[in-house]
Design a protein that fits this description.
This protein is of the alpha/beta class. It is built from 8 helices and 7 strands; from the N terminus they run E-H-E-H-E-H-E-H-E-H-E-H-H-H-E. 40% of the residues lie in helices and 14% in strands. The chain has a 7-stranded parallel sheet with strand order 3-2-1-4-5-6-7, sandwiched between helices. Strand 1, helix 1 and strand 2 form a beta-alpha-beta unit. Helix 1 crosses helix 8 and helix 3 runs parallel beside helix 4. The longest helix is centred in the middle third of the chain and has 26 residues. The structure holds nicotinamide-adenine-dinucleotide (NAD). The site of nicotinamide-adenine-dinucleotide has 29 residues, from helix 1 and helix 4. Nicotinamide-adenine-dinucleotide binds next to helix 1 and helix 4.
Length: 267
């Protein structure tokens, strides 16, 4: 029998595979919602976290919470639509992250929920500029910090609407579908450098991004009816899936999109 087949033992430290002690993470979009929850969650599991956002006030509020946990943190203003801005943020984080960046979570996203016949071409571009081009900028700049070091994790924020459709989501669904595909290409290109790239695909979570839906009773109830678990996700419920993709727990996982959707897409 081959010796490979006899390797049934678990590795040393298996009980620590979700820990991020000593790691340096970049969370772009850390000023609000899911990005803020992920930044704080990673800090609770031992990571130092650079908080990037176009909303500098929001990012520095997250930084303050992380510092209270005894972890190192940093606020960097960045507009992901602007390549020069993302490059300059990468330089700032590189100087901070002595020994290299281990994790980058690319979160920023916006939406313009309108039927196609009412959606202006400029609005379509606005969504694509943040959700797709912005994410490409982040993956390129922060991935560029990891590849030469031969280690890293990238987590891209997609959505269930990258995989299934819904009315009034033309720009958003197009952008998130592209994020799913971009994630696969990045995974293929970066795997030889031990940089693993995956995406998260949440259904609705209670954040400022979905205020429009939460404030419209009929719309809200229509959404909830589509979720087998019968509710929106709470922001903290994205932390576990993100932690899985950031940690040693997912050391043989790349190019995948992890659904966090209360069963929406199982139906
Ligand atoms: N909330 C949900 O129900 C839900 C569901 C699926 C996917 N998502 C995705 O999760 C991500 C976060 O959503 P959220 O609900 O936490 O939204 P949010 O509005 O609470 O947070 C988004 C953050 O991104 C930042 N941002 C926006 N444009 C930016 C730019 N140009 N440059 C830098 N930062 C920018 C905002 O300032 C904000 O801090 C998005 O990609 C969204 O599409 C959210």
């Amino acid at each position: 029998m081959s010796s490979d087949l006899e390797q049934t033992g678990l590795p040393e430290g298996i009980q620590e595979i979700f820990r991020l002690d000593g790691q340096r993470a970049i969370v772009t979009g850390a000023g609000s919602g899911l990005g803020r929850a992920i930044a704080l969650g990673f800090a609770h599991f031992g990571a130092d976290v650079a908080c990037l956002d176009v909303d500098v006030e929001g990012a520095s509020a997250t930084e303050a919470e992380i510092s209270k946990l005894g972890r190192e943190s940093l606020t960097v203003g960045v507009d992901v639509r602007d390549w020069e801005s993302v490059l300059s943020s990468a330089r700032e984080v590189e100087a901070w992250a002595d020994g290299g960046v281990d994790i980058a979570v690319n979160v920023p996203g916006i939406n313009r929920r309108k039927p196609v016949l009412e959606l202006e071409p400029e609005e379509f571009s606005e969504v694509l500029d943040v959700n797709l081009r912005g994410l490409f900028h982040c993956a390129k700049a922060y991935g560029g910090l990891m590849v030469p070091n031969g280690r890293g994790r990238i987590i891209n924020m997609a959505s269930i609407f990258g995989l299934v459709a819904m009315e009034r989501q033309a720009a958003y669904a197009a952008s998130k579908g592209a994020v799913v595909q971009l994630t696969k290409v990045l995974a293929l290109e970066f795997a030889p450098h031990n940089v693993l790239v995956n995406a998260l695909a949440p259904a609705y979570f209670t954040t400022p991004l979905v205020r429009q839906i939460m404030e419209d009773r009929d719309w809200y109830e229509d959404v909830v009816r589509r979720v087998p678990q019968g509710r929106f996700g709470e922001v903290w419920e994205v932390v576990g899936p993100a932690l899985f993709l950031a940690s040693r727990a997912s050391s043989f996982v790349t190019g995948t999109t992890l659904l966090v959707d209360g069963g929406w897409t199982a139906a």
